[in-house]
Write a structure and sequence with these properties.
Elements (H helix, E strand, L loop, with lengths): L2 E9 L3 E11 L7 E5 L13 E6 L10 H5 L11 E6 L3 E3 L7 E3 L15 H18 L5 E6 L1 H12 L7 E7 L21 E7 L7 H13 L4 E6 L8 H19 L1
Helix pairs in contact: 2-3
């Protein structure tokens, strides 16, 4: 059953507000995960939202690992009165880099360097699943797509390979991640209008997804003529921090306000 969480939010950007979140099991499309609405909608897929955020967790995590980042007042404040957060959970499967042990994963990972093999089939399957979520929710308001680490790689791959969804996806947030197979995307493939904004975030002490991968992702997006902003976090490893949450909250607020203008 859905649960309701009430927090007294006091972000420096958002002011002091009280947001009542209704958190439901599932991603709204029959898949595993969690869905939260800041206004307690009875039918989350059909009720219009000021903004819907589809956020993908990293390797070995799940929707439960990120729900508090969006519904806890100390983290990412609701950017609009009617905010929906969709947190799909990946299926559990053997992961090569983890010695074949089963783990929640959006696709198999063979290595962490740029020359490592890419699980194209697994990545494509996850892109297809998340594209279905975007198509489900974009009729009910603007969508921001984002993710951490492996989840961010799926979000980036979707944003660049499914330009037919750009009308619904207003922005993409890529946190501590990288773009798989960047050579697939060339300058002539970029469109001048209708493209989402990109926000690339990375800790400068990340020992897993190296900081230069985040910077290279931003540089690739910029080379395609896309609106990309990079922000590094001194001393942050492969993790998230409150400063990053504040930046995401402000970015989401800007997207919601621009869409409403």
């Amino acid at each position: 059953p859905p649960r309701t969480a009430r927090w007294s939010s006091s972000s420096s950007m958002m002011g002091s507000t009280t947001t009542e979140w209704t958190v439901r099991p599932g991603d709204g499309a029959g898949g595993a995960g969690l869905t939260a609405e800041s206004w307690g909608a009875d039918d989350p897929a059909q009720k219009p939202a000021d903004l819907t955020v589809v956020w993908l967790h990293g390797l070995g995590d799940s929707a439960h690992g990120w729900i508090d980042a969006f519904t806890d007042a100390r983290s990412i404040a609701a950017p609009a009165p009617r905010t929906r957060v969709v947190l799909p959970s990946a299926a559990t499967a053997p992961v090569t880099i983890n010695g074949g042990h089963a783990s929640p994963s959006w696709y198999d990972i063979y290595g962490l360097d740029r020359n490592s093999q890419v699980d194209d089939a697994g990545l494509a399957a996850s892109v297809q699943r998340v594209a279905g979520l975007v198509e489900l929710y974009d009729d009910a308001g603007p969508v921001v797509l984002g993710g951490f680490s492996q989840g961010g790689a799926v979000a980036l791959s979707l944003a660049l390979s499914r330009r037919d969804l750009w009308g619904g996806v207003r922005a993409v947030i890529a946190a501590s991640t990288y773009l798989p197979r960047p050579e697939r995307y060339e300058v002539e493939h970029a469109l001048s209008g209708g493209a989402p904004r990109f926000l690339v975030l990375h800790g400068d002490a990340d020992p897993l997804v190296l900081p230069e991968y985040g910077r290279a992702t931003h540089d690739k997006l910029a080379s395609l003529g896309l609106d990309s902003t990079f922000h590094g976090f001194p001393g942050m490893g492969h993790a998230a921090c409150l400063e990053e949450f504040d930046l995401i909250a402000q970015f989401l607020k800007e997207i919601a306000q621009n869409d409403g203008d």
